[in-house]
Amino acid sequence: ALRLAGGRSRCEGRVELEQEGTWGTVCDDSWDIPDGDVVCRQLQCGHAVRIHGSATFGRGHGPILRDEVGCEGQERHLWECPAATEHDCSHKEDAGVVCSEHQEWRLSGGRDGCAGRVEVFFRGTWSTVCDSTWYDLEATVLCRMLGCGNVLQRPSFGHTLPGKMLYQCGSPQPSLAQCHWTFNKSAPCHQSRAAGVICNGTGS
Predict the structure, then answer these.
(1) Domain limits at 108?
(2) pTM
(3) What positions does the domain SRCR occupy (predicted)?
């Protein structure tokens, strides 16, 4: 089995695999984009947009199960790739990856991290969010995800980033990624503006 741990979604984090009932990590020696591509595809998370070493997502536990991984990028599973099972690594060299289906959010241009224009990182690029379905429910999900409390206002801005996301939450969800969403579909975003939010919490 394979998973990503320590990230902000199931498509970002420290690479961990299970061998004989024990979860372990992968050393970052020669860890590169083709290796990350195999992990992302195996987890149905798209492709790798960033790879990380040096325990970027925290230090793992258990054995270090792979070192000097050398995927070509077409393999279906990480364990099909050539690798050394002997290693000279510690957990401060745990490998990680950010896959294209990972979504992360930020608020920009406001007084702090809890106010501003909603921007989402997805498939390797930052996008704005269309305000055509940006209601209190969607804004509440975002404020709580960011640890920013509840919604005070939902201002609108101009779209200035290349991509556009649209979220529709039928009910409260722990993350906008678990709501219905579409990326770069022009019709629902036609004549929309860029969604913003002011939450009642304060962020850094």
Answers:
(1) 103-199
(2) 0.82
(3) 2-100, 105-200
